Amino acid sequence: MIGSTKINVIVSQIKVLNDLVTCFEFKTTNGDLLPTFSGGAHTIVEMQDGVVLRLNPYSIMSDPFDQTRYTISVRRDDQGRGGSLFMHTKVKVGDEMVISYPVNLFSLDLRARKHLFIAGGIGITPFLAQIKQLERSNGYWELHYSTRRPALGTFVEELLEKYPHKVSPYYDEADQRIELTSLLSGQPLGTHIYICGPKGMIDWVRQEATDFGWPDEAIHFEEFLAPIPGKPFQAKLEISDKVINVGELQSLLEAVELAGVKAPYLCRGGACGQCETSVIEYDGKFIHRDHWLTDDEKASGLKIMPCVSRFEGKKLVLDR
Amino acid sequence: MVGFKFPESIKSRPVYGTLFVKPGVDHLIIADGEGAEAIIRLAKLNNQWIEKSHIIYIPKHTKTTFVDQLKELMPGQLYLGPSYPASVSRIRQALNNAKMGLQVYLAGTEGLIGQAQNECMSSGVPHTAIQTEHCGSIARRMQCVHCKGITEDVIMDPFICKHCGLSLFIRDHYSRRLAAFQGVCIDAEDPGNIPEAVELYK
Questions:
Q1: Which of B46, B96, B100 to probe by mutation at the A interface, max A CB count within 10 Å?
Q2: B71 to B38, B48, B184: CA distances (angstroms)
Q3: In the predicted model, is pLDDT for residue A224 greater than 80?
Q4: Domain stops at, among A222, A255, A290
């Protein structure tokens, strides 16, 4: 699949939430209703930044049953490749943009007896939609939300006001930490845990839950990786018979697309597996960063996920 | 002890493994008949595990054969049930009180494994996270697809439905929801033409 179906939207509202996070609301340009989605879904926002087309995934945080608008939150990353800065500095109310149909790689398991959410920083966004979804069916949930300081706990006040008994905030600067041991040991049978936040947090919670004997099927997590900058490299696309140059700030997938070659993708964050590409020949080393390939596949030198992974070396030939 | 090796079949047919001790907060073990042998084997490998274990055991035809050995293991709790239906309330109570981190081990006949798995699933334990080991009889729990009645411990194929009296042949088609294999009328198209019954896998 080359992405999912596109939707033409207009930026209907921009709300600055704090120093780092700004919230964007989209409505369709022609006034049609947007598709419904399930909590945890993301949309890919296309950003035409000069000659560069950026496609970044953002979790949809608005009510899954509200088809009049989608809302996303973008955290500014000054060290990033520019997508979030573009959103923060260039996008204005009334701008026309293109987003993708929602795709969900982080859905609720509705067989769960209880949903336990663990959020870190901007990782709160998918949970905002999931909470709205669960509230409609009187679902049983609980949120533990950790941020650096109160001002960055963007949604804490609103959540605490609405659900004072279901939300527990933690502030790093006040040395507050999620008491994972007591939290994990007291959950009723049938609880599922969902983690979204920095990699360190995801790894920590997954490991603890596994050590406590939680089955993998009850542990869900999502971490979108942004492609990281790296040394420029060259790749040959065998089927298309093209040689492409991948720039320092570009991902391999973006370079393939810029060369006019249609390559499959869905999440663009190393999670979904759609862009998996076979390597025909190489001389050098891979910088694998995805969550998709197994360690064996990564070591084999036969596969690469061009959305987030890079290459350093003399020669790379891809089956594309 | 070497268990029966079921030949490969359709995807719907359950497959069983060999129990091993997984890290967990508590351990619930449900077994019948020769399933006791699997528990005894595991307990010898890990005695800390057995202290945190709740064993629900239904001896069936083995009667007292394994009971003393199970008591000697000194499990956290040991319940001896006269039959599966009589043990269901105990199983449900154990699951109701359980917290995440519970590990479930099922050992014995297919009927016991299927029904206990079903109870665990309705308490929110993913079926893929439940360990199973087949021991003892290869008799099956069968549902008549016509009258929906369940006949337990079926070993001869075809067999007569206990409820509606039809002659049913045994399929490998299995329902996890019903914890039963499907039995289908063998002489529907040619009434009275019923082949002689043979024992399963003979």
A1: B100
A2: 15, 15, 42
A3: no
A4: A222
Size of interface A-B (CB pairs under 8 A): 60
Distance in angstroms (rounded) separating the CA atoms of residues A160 and A98: 34
* Residues A306 and A277 placed together within one structural domain of the fold: yes
* SS3 assignment for A52-84: EEEEEEEECCCCCCCCCCEEEEEECCCCCCCHH
pLDDT tier, A3 (very low <50, low <70, confident <90, very high otherwise):
low
Residue A7 confidence (pLDDT) above 70: yes
User: How high is the ipTM of this complex?
Assistant: 0.88
Amino acid making up residue B110: E
Place of tokens 């533990």: A144
> Does A274 lie in the same domain as A238?
yes
Instruction: Tell me how crowded residue B193 is: count the other CB atoms within 10 A of its CB.
Output: 10
pTM, two decimals, is 0.88
Which CATH number covers residue B126? 3.40.50.80
Quote the DSSP letter at residue A212.
Answer: T
Between positions 80 and 99 of B, the ones with CB within 8 A of A are 95-96, 98-99
d(CA B87, CA B102): 19
Antiparallel, parallel or unpaired: β A310-318 and A233-237: parallel
Q: Would the pLDDT of A38 be above 80? A: yes
Q: In which domain, by residue range, is A130 found?
A: 114-222
Between CA A54 and CA A310 the distance in angstroms is 17
Which of A189, A210, A211 minimises the CB distance to B102?
A189
- Residues B173, B126: one domain? no
- pLDDT given for residue A1 in this prediction: 56
Give the distance from residue B25's alpha carbon to the nearest chain A alpha carbon, in angstroms. Answer: 6
B92 shares a domain with B60: yes
Model pLDDT, residue A127: 97
Nearest-angstrom CA–CA distance, B57 and B35: 9
Q: Residue A197 to residues A176, A220, A227, A253, B134: CA-CA distances in angstroms?
A: 16, 12, 17, 24, 42
Helix (H, G, I), strand (E, B) or coil at A281: strand
Tokens of A248: 């320092």
